[in-house]
UniProtKB/TrEMBL annotation:
It holds the Pfam family V-set. Gene3D superfamilies: Immunoglobulins. It is found in: Membrane. Keywords: Disulfide bond, Glycoprotein, Immunoglobulin domain, Membrane, Signal. This is Ig-like domain-containing protein. Its main location: membrane.
């Protein structure tokens, strides 16, 4: 039986399907190249601009030119890709013959604004593989260009509501790396920032390092009761399983990945553990795999009054 947050339907669903969340987050950073002249410039109020977007969404990489009367060719390309063309405009029309197939039907100009000097590239249905360095080039007299960078920044996603459990339950403390990186060779630390540490140093609830759990730094109260999803590590799922929880397990848990490139290397999950009488049955879910084999789950809602008081409602 899993103890879980019951106030958020999305979180509840994530726990019941073993956390198959696949939302990806990309951060777009627009920077000016030192090759830019007054003929071509990034449409930003400062040399650096950062805008967060999500995968499957649409982003615009800005590029403008003030030479519109004889604008014959506009080329957007991506470094370290063959063919490297992501968007090509010639003689008033977009051409696709030289375009990389990964960007077919996903990149475009705002055609009615090209003649006004707006030659920004619109990329739709963003993919993780879209991250990288892009060049916007024009052929007006001599070639001019600007540079735009799509930078993938990882972050940790955790339960937005406390995880609620009764004594004796098994719980999952959700922690997902997005975009879903392969974490098999990374270090993953689960700790209790609200707990008193031993004099010799940090004690971990669960420490994964060098492709295995490290036990000599593990808090004795969690021995034999924690695990990660072995198959999930490859897909960025570093959620912690705690079995047979007790009231002593209640508190704050920190999920920490030291080598993440993003600014968010750690996230906090709160666990509430109560006696069974402090929980009111909320719903019973039956899942039948065959005509003769069924599983059932009782989901509880934590209430601040006793079971006897609840029964009088």
């Amino acid at each position: 039986m899993l103890g879980c947050a019951v106030n958020d339907l999305d979180i509840l669903k994530d726990l019941l399907i073993s956390i198959k969340l696949r939302m990806k987050t990309i951060i777009i950073m627009i920077i000016m190249s030192n090759k830019v002249t007054h003929f071509l410039n990034v449409a930003a109020s400062s040399p650096s601009l950062s805008t967060p977007v999500s995968a499957n969404e649409t982003v615009t990489l800005p590029c403008r030119t003030n030479q519109t009367s004889d604008l014959l060719t506009v080329e957007w390309s991506k470094a370290e890709m063959t063919p490297n063309i992501t968007l090509l405009y010639r003689h008033g029309f977009e051409t696709v013959e030289e375009k990389n197939s990964a960007f077919l039907n996903r990149t475009s100009f705002i055609l009615e604004e090209v003649k006004l000097g707006n030659i920004s590239q619109v990329i739709s249905k963003l993919r993780l593989s879209d991250g990288g360095r892009y060049l916007c080039r024009t052929m007006v007299g001599k070639q001019q260009q600007v540079e735009a960078v799509l930078d993938l920044i990882e972050r940790l996603l955790v339960s937005r509501q406390p995880v609620v459990a009764a004594q004796g339950d098994d719980v999952i403390l959700q922690c997902l790396v997005e975009p879903p990186l392969d974490m098999v060779d990374m270090t993953v630390e689960w700790s209790r920032p609200d707990a008193k540490h031993r004099p010799k140093g940090m004690e971990y609830v669960h420490l994964y390092r060098d492709n295995r759990e490290v036990l000599d730094m593990k808090s004795s109260s969690y021995h034999g009761r924690t695990a990660l999803f072995a198959g999930g590590l490859r897909h960025g799922n570093i959620s912690l399983i705690i079995t047979n929880v007790t009231t002593a397990d209640e508190g704050t848990y920190k999920c920490f990945v030291p080598k993440l490139h993003g600014n968010t290397k750690s996230s906090i999950v709160h666990l509430i553990v109560g006696e069974l009488k402090s929980f009111a049955p909320l719903v019973v879910i039956f899942m039948c795999h065959t005509h003769t084999m069924c599983q059932w789950h009782i989901l509880y809602e934590y209430v601040p009054y006793s079971y006897n008081e609840l029964s009088t409602f």
